[in-house]
Amino acid sequence: MSDIYRIRAAAARARGHVRRTPLLSSAALDARAGRRIWVKAECLQVTGSFKARGAWAAVSALAPEVRARGVIAFSSGNHAQGVAWAAAAHGAPAVILMPQDAPAVKIEGTRALGAEVVLYDRLTQDRAALAVGIGGDRGLTLIPPYDHPEVIAGQGTTGLEIVADAAEAGIAAAEVLVCCGGGGLASGIALALEAEAPAFRVRTAEPAGFDDMARSLASGDRVSNPAATGSICDAILTPRPGAMTFPILRERAGPGLAVSDDEALAAMSLAFSHLHIVLEPGGAVALAAALFRGDELATGDVIAVASGGNVESALFAEAIARYPA
Amino acid sequence: MSDIYRIRAAAARARGHVRRTPLLSSAALDARAGRRIWVKAECLQVTGSFKARGAWAAVSALAPEVRARGVIAFSSGNHAQGVAWAAAAHGAPAVILMPQDAPAVKIEGTRALGAEVVLYDRLTQDRAALAVGIGGDRGLTLIPPYDHPEVIAGQGTTGLEIVADAAEAGIAAAEVLVCCGGGGLASGIALALEAEAPAFRVRTAEPAGFDDMARSLASGDRVSNPAATGSICDAILTPRPGAMTFPILRERAGPGLAVSDDEALAAMSLAFSHLHIVLEPGGAVALAAALFRGDELATGDVIAVASGGNVESALFAEAIARYPA
Predict the structure, then answer these.
(1) Burial status of residue A325 (CB atoms within 10 A of its CB: 0-12, 13-18, 19 or more)
(2) CA-based Rg of chain B, rounded to a whole angstrom?
């Protein structure tokens, strides 16, 4: 199980490796939203997303002789880069299964970190069976993207930093909007906030049409998305909430929020102009919810976790051209 | 005079107002440069550039009754926004004289911070005379962009942070590359490093053709640029080194470096892809020098100060399209 003790232990192991990211704000964004908005800039994290946290927690927790045989992961990109980085830093080999339609910038980034990348066709091949086949032969340990106690604990270190950042910024209570795929980041942060800052509550943010977490939180049971593709928010298109993350969130988070792809692009453009950070669409949905779903939020302060920045230059150029700030 | 005591006092007054910016790095940039490169991300500073530091130092140092009458500054944009922000935060009025060809994003940013913006024609009007005329009538205090002891001390707080960041990152010695216009940031950092980390040395970075500081450091006397315009690095096109900043740098910095506009754009693109930060051309020349002037640098670690991120979206889109990482 993930809990605050595991999160604190993950934070201790991460020191000097995982980056302490800043909490940013801008008067222009506050004026636009009609409330104070802070942005936890995980796009500035090592490997360009929060995924480095969970990967470091999981890889660093392995027994040395197990770790030395290597790790394996499947991911459309950000978890891939996180695991590749954490493995390389520990001197362990990494095999990453990536869908062949993953953004080129993420495939290249994963290879540049020294991982062996195996591409598969997500319509015709079963990635889990592939992973077992490749990993079993070589004795590799699977690092799952979210349903894993150490991964959740590692993502939860973001929550510990938010608590400290908020205290320094004089934020007494806030809704904490978290970009949500499988729910690893949201559940880790929810556990950290429950223990250290119970006046702060997690609200998940997802792409419209892929709001399985919001609908699951509303119904009390895990439900699936009707489609697997169809949003530019590639980083957070998971079929349904995680078996391990959902029970954590059901007790501690919600209601969930959803934004359109256009709103995610507009949030990217506003973050470019006013915060000078680079967000990918899936990393911008929480900020988009803070800016464009104010009527669904409680009155008061909002902290949006900007979870990643690994975006193709053409898409980023389109976002800042189409949505002038 | 600016000295380390004034810098430390400025840092104490800035606490809770000026942002502590992160020192970023990327394995991909290190591989490209063949050395370790760190980037001090002042584009993430309040108002999008380091200028907030000097402005805060100068405005906060004024006697309350003087400050209440207001301040005036002339600037193509970043100093304008810094002074507007610092004045507003102190409840003081601000008048900013800006050239009418300044980037629209900077003019709008200055107005959004509550300042009264007066546009002038830089070919036909004398901005200093204008400033005296407007400021004298109203009892406004001029906040110069660099030749001012408190402004230099405020910019020098960047140096204090670099010293602390470097210790934490295990950097024992480095060349610190600093984007240079009038020399306020470079001279402030040079004073801080001399006092607290003498193994670190400032190297100024300028646009080719506007390398008045490099030529002045080489000759030992202040020399001017042949032209006033002709580079996209609008933030750092000053006619000659400052009277107050140059003597500081002559004793402590150099040799100066210069990069082309194309190299500045390429550095912007690499910072986009690998650090997920937004740089303006004038804020990217130090990183460009780190990446493309390695043969002019000492062997070993480099810290590049990325001084600002206030860039028009069209120019940024052009940079990331033309120079794929």
Answers:
(1) middle
(2) 18
Q: Which of B51, B60, B75, B269 is catalytic?
A: B51
The pTM is what? 0.96
Q: Radius of gyration (Cα) for chain A, nearest Å?
A: 18
Higher pLDDT, B9 or A108: B9
Alpha carbon of B105: minimum distance to chain A alpha carbons (Å): 9
User: Which residue of A279, A313, A316 is the best one to mutate when testing the B interface, meaning the one whose CB has the most B CBs within 10 A?
Assistant: A313
Q: Take residue B290 and report the two structure tokens written for it.
A: 């780190």
CA distances in angstroms from B81 to A46, B84, B180, listed in the order given: 30, 5, 18
* 3-state SS class at B314: helix
My answer on whether A155 and A251 are in the same domain is yes
Distance, in Å, from the CA atom of B152 to the CA atom of B256, rounded to the nearest integer, reads 19
**Which range marks the domain in which residue B102 is found?**
52-142
- Tokens for A310? 């690994």
Pair B202, B283 in one domain: yes
Contact A309 B276 (CB under 8 A): yes
- Out of A142, A165, A188, a domain closes at A142
Q: Taking Cα atoms as reference points, which of B86, B137, B135, B151 lies closest to residue B113? A: B86
Note the pLDDT tens digit of each residue in A129-158. Answer: 888 888 888 899 999 999 999 999 999 999
Separation CA A245–CA A233 (nearest Å): 20
A277–B277: do the CB atoms touch at under 8 Å? yes
Last residue of a domain, one of A142, A160, A181: A142
Inter-chain CB proximity A313 and B269 less than 8 Å: yes
Provide the shortest C-alpha distance from residue A124 to chain B (in Å). Answer: 32
In which order are the strands placed within the sheet that holds B116-120?
B116-120, B94-99, B71-74, B141-142
Q: Give ipTM to 2 decimals.
A: 0.95
Q: How many domains does chain A have?
A: 2
